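Memo to structure team: turn this sequence into structure tokens by end of day. - J.P.
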Amino acid sequence: MNKSLRRAVLLPLAISSLLLGTLAGASTQAYAQSSQITKTVAATDILLNGSPLTWTNSQPFIYKGTTYVPLRETAEQMGAEVKWNKSKRASEIMIHGNIIDHRPETSYFTINGYTQLQAPGTSLLRNGSTMVPLRTLAEVLGATVTTSSNPVRQINLLPDNSTIIEGAAALADEYLIHQQFSGIALIADHGEVQLRKGYGLNGPEKLISPDDKSRIASLTKGFTAAAIMKLEEEGKLHLDDTLESYIPGFPQGNEITLHMLLSHTSGLASNFPRTEGLTLEQTIETIKGKPLVFTPGTDFKYSNSGYMLLGRIIELVSGMSYTDFIQSHFIAPLHMTESGIADQQTRVIKGYVSKSDQWALAGPYYTQPGSGDYIQPLTIY
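Reply from structure team:
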């Protein structure tokens, strides 16, 4: 046998030996993993809307304290389409306009190519099925997970019925995904909701749901302005009243009117300190110490400070806290049952900020009433 032919014969043999070794290693790993499975989950222990899910290839099990389920069977029973993407070497799950990728034997789920969620453990291969942590799979599918222990411990999955994508709004959904938008989007036409969907991360372990509560920041100014106009309508104040007549001691306060505060033409500095523990009175004194940026009424400059002062004026005139006035005059009469004033304990979306070209979880948000308080957005059903 010549040398060329010998090489042609030996090379496949070498590759085959390498492949067999790899398969043997994988089998050993799979066996080791199987030996750590502490409990097989009964068919009736995992429910979908109260009815047991069905399993064909692999039964769910508990591994290292985490419940694992077959990715394909579970996702399809929850309304998703699942296929294998050869180029990505990943399972591809499609639901609610999202494409969710998961590579077997990894712990990551990637949503629309840019949002990544990490499961508490890597997926496992069992009887030809990719087994994944149940709670993480439910999260990426938008499902809610509830548990009960009477008489036996059961896990109930509630599919995402909040996300809405109708007709041409699918184009807006595609655009928001392409722009890597993070937040909640709502599009309605004559009262009919066309798009209602959450995008991006809510903290490190959850995705944003359209049902999540979110601070509306400076959209609070619309409530503040409406409150001032309500008091003006009731004859309790006038838009040409001066700042001096309510909160004395400001530079040229006798020239700054409530109308100027409303229209950002007061000349007051834009921002005020946002520090934990800083009282309203201390904040006002700090603003008084800042020079005007222009003569009142001669220019325009967006001013958080002006709206914070309007919030204080609402309290002085009404004899109520800002929170109570907004609640009693707007939120309650308009039946805004999913809206309200939040405090630091209210569970709202956890956003991210850019630090040194890296995304970091945003810290607590402090402000004074009026300019960017904690009013939650109305949830549309």
